[in-house]
UniProtKB/TrEMBL annotation:
Nucleotide-binding keyword on record: no
Gene Ontology molecular functions: zinc ion binding
Protein name: Tripartite motif-containing protein 5
CDD domains per the UniProt record, alphabetical: Bbox2_TRIM5-like, RING-HC_TRIM5-like_C-IV
Species per Swiss-Prot/TrEMBL record: Myotis davidii (David's myotis)
Domain RING-type: 70-114
GO CC list: cytoplasm
Amino acid sequence: MMPLGGAWGLALHNQLCGRGCSRGIGRPHPGALTAEISEHQKPQIRTDWSRGAASMASGILMNVKEEVTCPICLELLTEPMSLDCGHTFCQACITAHSREFMIGRGESSCPVCRSTYQPETMRPNRHVANIVEALREVKLSPQEEQERDLCVDHGEKLLLFCNEDKKIICWLCERSPGHRGHQIFLVEEIAQKNKEKLRAALDRLKAEQQEAEKLNDDLEAERTSRKVGGESFW
């Protein structure tokens, strides 16, 4: 169909648009554009926006999970404890580490940055605990479950662990300049070693606790015996 022009085109345009409109025949009216977008483009725009928002949310979720993952056991933090340097660990993990890697004068060093700390200065991080609790309740779709273990930079599976940076990486990260010359291990290997160390340390702690409880029971028995005999315990 040929476009209308001249007086006939202008008359028709003024009738549809209103006499106050100063737009020319060759330029589309904004109302017509809006109608066209509403009918033909809005569903696609809405779909694309939803996909983009979902992808962004998934990426944010994965970044948050990385921030609340224990650097020792590589799992979501359980009873998070923070050091003065700012790094946070599971209570059981950092307690076991403190006992195993005591460096003198009752001090230990942070597994991440090697800053020294006194075990009694460790403090519960309730803010992080609340974040972990909320994350545990998040239900991921099958696609998000699959993407959860992918590198946010390269989209590859996170199968390696950088010992220097204490970070899970992919094979492309390993080849990047940022990790060149670093000690790289398989995640499964590091996780198994850390679990074995943690289990051994927990066994030692349990034995020490039992010994302390037995000593306390012996002291209580001795105190009771002396009270019965009329002797002063101290």
